[in-house]
Amino acid sequence: MAALPLDRAPDARPGRRGRRTAWAAQAALLPMALTVLLVYLGTVLWSIRISTTSSKIFPKSDFVGLEQYVRLFETERWLVSLHNLAIFGVLFVAACLVLGFLLAVFIDQKVKGEDLLRTVFLYPYAMSFVATGLIWQWMLNPELGIQATLRAWGWSEASFDWIVRQDRVIYTVVIAAAWQASGLVMAILLAGLRGVDPEQWSAARLEGIPRWRYYLHIVLPQLAPAFGTCFVLLAVGVVKVFDAVVSMTGGGPGTASEVPAKFIMDNLFTRANVGLASAASTVMLLTVLALLAPWMYWRHQTSRRNAGGH
To answer: Given CB 3.0 to 4.6 Å as the disulfide criterion, which of 4, 32, 172, 273 pairs with 267?
Structure first.
């Protein structure tokens, strides 16, 4: 068999160089992969294991099955925190989606100062939840904030003391959190709106379709992926809510604004009940997975359909 010409021999080098580059990239990612497996996944598994023990101040190696979970759901404070989380979650997600969509539609009208308005609406999201909580705590304080201002202006009977009322305090947390997160929803939905073909509005206008019907029946269906992303981000934020509650109300009055994350932290560091705190954190982990799994499945199915269409 005839040998290959000498000028053809170097052709194999790019393949070897590509393989070396791929191996180098994988080696560079190895420390991060080990960190995820050993630190993150390891601590998750450790927490689940501790939740099946009778650990108090220090971890124990005994096994008590689901005893901590039974005790958890017999604890009134935990049940109150779940009730508060449900109220907060429904109102917070709904408020952010509605306000974010309205802000996105407003900015999408090519208003003057669009860049400034985008910055102003998105700026609260750049703040920490602690700062947001403190700001709204001052604003809602009956002696310093909105109520005191209204009375100083002459409305002597004005009352806005929700933050000190057990039946209303959770709604103040919703107001503060929605004020902060609506800007993120606005930014995501605005990007989706900019992807809608403007010719559709021209055709709708020729047909005499009012603007509200155009957004309801034409635009909203096209924004379904953006709304799905917003919903998942907001829902995960609901499960993790902690800073805003601690800085605004401290979980009070009493336990009126208690949330699961605060319950976990209090049992872990203040009440020295590691087993119960681990059981509660495992329940919240399963909640997050239950929220993410349908979204990830939907994204996977959508990607497969799009790939099949091509």
So the answer is: 273
Classify residue 4: in a domain, yes or no.
Answer: no
| Rounded (10°) angle between helices 114-126 and 169-193 | 140
Per-residue tokens: 307: 């790939």
The CATH number of whichever domain residue 113 belongs to comes to: 1.10.3720.10
* 80 close to 284: Cβ distance less than 8 angstroms: no
Q: Based on the structure, what is the number of domains in the chain?
A: 1
Residue 238 lies in a domain: yes
Could you tell me how many residues make up the chain? 310
Residue 11 lies in a domain: no
Per-residue pLDDT of the chain (310 residues; tens, 9 = 90+): 445 454 444 444 556 776 777 787 778 888 888 887 788 888 889 999 999 999 998 888 899 999 999 999 999 999 999 999 999 999 999 999 999 999 999 998 888 888 898 889 999 998 888 899 999 999 999 988 899 999 999 898 888 899 999 999 999 999 999 999 999 999 999 999 988 888 888 888 888 888 888 888 889 999 988 998 999 899 989 998 999 999 999 998 999 999 999 999 999 888 889 999 999 999 999 988 887 888 788 777 877 777 765 5
To which residue do tokens 């990239």 refer?
Answer: 25
Question: What DSSP designation does 56 have?
Answer: S
Please give the residue range of the domain that contains residue 263: 67-303
Report pTM: 0.84
